[in-house]
Amino acid sequence: MSAQPEEAPAPLAPAAAAQLLAQLREDRRAETWVQTFERDWAKALEDSRHTYSLTPLHDVVRTWRLRLAAAPAVDAYMDSSRDEIGRMPLVRSLGFGTVG
């Protein structure tokens, strides 16, 4: 019998954070993303020291991998020039009156 739940994610490679940081440095958002990743990593490292668990570190790497993977889709959406002018604001459509 295992102490881990069946749906436990696979452990990360020891160099996963360093590899991810290298990818972030190559991204066009590097100026802000690297600094933010390093801040998240430092907080997770401190949390890991207090809890004796690697989970916070793994969570940071998984979250940033997802952000990096989603970035092209977000860019494509932002570049699609979707015109939102003239559409009814969600607030009005839900019956909350007029907007600002």
CA-based gyration radius: 20 Å
What helical percentage do the residues reach? 55-70%
Task: Give the biggest sheet.
Answer: none
The unreliable regions are none
Q: Number of helix segments?
A: 4
Summary of the model, kept short:
With 100 residues, this protein is mainly α.
Secondary-structure blueprint of this entry?
Layout: H1 16-26, H2 30-51, H3 55-79, H4 90-93
Helix pairs in contact: 1-2, 1-3, 2-3
Could you please describe the fold and organization of this structure?
- With 100 residues, this protein is an all-alpha fold.
- It has one domain.
- Helix content is 62%, strand content 0%.
- The chain is built from 4 helices and no strands.
- Helix 1 packs parallel to helix 3.
- It is elongated, with a radius of gyration of 20 Å.
- The relative contact order is 0.10.
- The mean pLDDT is 81.
Q: Can you give keywords for this protein?
A:
100 residues, mainly alpha, 4 helices, 62% helix, elongated
